[in-house]
Design brief:
The protein is an all-alpha fold. The chain has helices at 8-34, 36-46, 56-71, 75-93, 102-132. It is elongated, with a radius of gyration of 17 Å.
């Protein structure tokens, strides 16, 4: 199997994108650590099956995914971790279709769509990382999963 190569400039642009995406998830991780009780209570109120996971465990998951993508340590796995987080977050915590108040419904719709956008970015980056493998510039490791 031939590994795709990447120019230095393309690698630098992709690195900037990786870091910018990771900033959102790292910031979210911090919020989940800092506000464990509030996150757990909101998850309980929203009907999350295991609401305790919404606090510091979700923060640890988010931090690991952000570090993975930004540093390029199995970045393909990190993007899948991001996607695995935003799916239940969108469906349980931002279920705009369950909200009666118009203003709150708009807020939840925007949060839902933000998560859908992050899922799209995570899937697109997963495909890039899993296809490029060791050709990814400015990364600690190659891909864990290989698409050929």
């Amino acid at each position: 199997m031939r590994t795709a190569t990447m120019t230095t400039s393309a690698g630098a642009i992709l690195l900037a994108g990786r870091v910018l995406l990771a900033v959102f998830f790292a910031n979210s991780a911090y919020g989940h650590f800092k506000n464990h009780r509030m996150m757990t209570a909101y998850a309980r109120q929203s009907g999350v099956p295991l609401p305790v996971v919404a606090g510091w465990p979700a923060g640890a998951w988010l931090a690991a995914s952000a570090l993975s993508v930004a540093a390029g340590i199995w970045a393909d796995l990190g993007t899948l971790m991001m996607g695995a987080f935003v799916i239940p977050a969108a469906l349980f915590l931002h279920a705009f279709w369950r909200v009666d108040d118009a203003a709150e419904r708009r807020t939840q719709l925007q949060s839902f769509l933000r998560n859908v956008s992050y899922l799209g970015a995570a899937l697109a980056l997963f495909a890039v990382f899993a296809s490029i493998d060791h050709g990814l510039r400015f990364a600690v490791t190659g891909s864990l999963i290989h698409l050929s």
